[in-house]
């Protein structure tokens, strides 16, 4: 337990020093692409749900069952697409995924 506490203190001190010493940086292009993609997917999927809700609440038009089903599928697609966007646009996630799937297995496993 003592060694764990020492390690935590070391990590905290090392990270604090790094943050203080690092120069202020702007947003990376990859971060901008990621946020833009996530926001665009959110607006596309939830915007349709908001449209249906407004139409039904104010009785502007009749929303068919097929439309409701399609828009519900879009909401589910949002949950599916977000992890994929992160996986394709975040370098650290790509690196960890490659490391996970590209590990070489030894020919002989010794017990």
TrEMBL record:
SUPFAM superfamilies given in the database record: Family A G protein-coupled receptor-like
Top-rank taxon, per record: Eukaryota
One cellular component term from this protein's GO annotations in UniProt: membrane
Keyword Lipid metabolism assigned: no
InterPro entries, per the entry: GPCR_Rhodpsn_7TM
Main location group: membrane
Keyword entries, A-Z: Membrane, Transmembrane, Transmembrane helix
Domain named G-protein coupled receptors family 1 profile: residues: 1-86
Cellular localisation: Membrane
Transmembrane segments: 34-54, 69-89
Protein name stated in the entry: G-protein coupled receptors family 1 profile domain-containing protein
Organism: Desmophyllum pertusum
């Amino acid at each position: 337990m003592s060694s764990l506490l020492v390690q935590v203190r070391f990590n905290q001190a090392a990270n604090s020093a790094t943050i203080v010493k690092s120069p202020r940086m702007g947003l990376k292009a990859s971060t901008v692409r990621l946020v833009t993609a996530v926001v665009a997917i959110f607006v596309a999927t939830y915007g349709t749900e908001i449209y249906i809700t407004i139409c039904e609440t104010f009785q502007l038009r009749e929303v068919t069952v097929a439309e409701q089903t399609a828009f519900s599928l879009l909401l589910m697609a949002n949950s599916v697409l977000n992890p994929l966007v992160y996986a394709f646009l975040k370098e650290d996630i790509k690196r960890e995924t490659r490391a996970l799937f590209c590990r070489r297995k030894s020919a002989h496993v010794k017990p």
